[in-house]
Amino acid sequence: MAAVLAAFGLSATPAGAPLLDFQSGAPTVRQLVGQKLVVSMNGTTPSGSLLSRAHYGTIGGVIIHSTNFTSAANLRTIAGRLQRAAANGGQPRLLIAVDQEGGPVKTISWIPPTISPRRMGELGSSHVAHRQGRRTGGALRDLGVNLDLAPVADVPASTSSFMYLQGRTWSFGAGTTSRLANAFASGLADAGALASMKHFPGLGFARLNTDTNVVHIAATKSQLQPGLKPYQAAVTRGVPLVMLSNAVYDAYDRGHAAGWSRVIGSELLRGQLGFRGVTITDSLDGAAHARGISANPLAIRAARAGTDLLLLTGSEAASRSVYKSLLDAVSAGRISVARLQASYQRILALKAGL
Which of 45, 49, 46, 47 is nearest to 58 (CA)? Predict the structure, then answer.
């Protein structure tokens, strides 16, 4: 494997070693893998281990949960410490992410959106959706958060849709969903926050939660087509990130969920829809729990498929284990270095705009 890495100007550096080959300026394998990971934080203050990972570039971002902070000041301190650790190590800025959809899903309870997606769908106003997105983005940036894992773009096929039952969808109409979700995403962008449209290629037909169940969607391509409309509009508008769902879509790929399907993530999203931004999985720990396995093999499959960012919502120890498994898979030739480099360049381009 050393010869393969050398052909790409790479080296498999040990823990704690510099992340760049200063003779060639090329990233090391540790950086190629590390920048893919968006990980969870234990407790209400960054651990020494997490700060070290930020310093050495072996994580690309941190998802903040409501249990990680007790106040606005606490959240600002967390974000600031993490970003300083990355900066002091000469690393790109971290993605600091939350789920701030509005309605029942708001990591930070006291900031916008003040109107739920369902209510905005009833109002039908793009202006209201854009204003809510802009206010949300501004509030997030004030707290040190730069990535909102929103908006939801799923178009429920019926009232049996679990996303509809959770109160997270905009409308039963693909056109209305597309217009309002994209207006919200544009508002986030106007305030300097990143949007992540989700859950591609759509969870409208899913009756069970993909975080707790293995969901197979049997809908045909024709039936799934309306659900692609919000994403096609988002691609046209330059949405920076798209989250891939944890469901399996029989019409596209019977063997792999969207998050680790090359057919869906590359051929459909990038090839047919023309997306040039960054893809991110839904929670791999949720998908792993539903399958009775660890997140490690799913992370490897997602990396092999070319998915850019891997969302890990388990413990810090669990995400460190995933990182090691990915390094081992690269060393064994199971993950394409060229594919890692392509993701790395997209991730760095995304971060360059922060």
Answer: 49
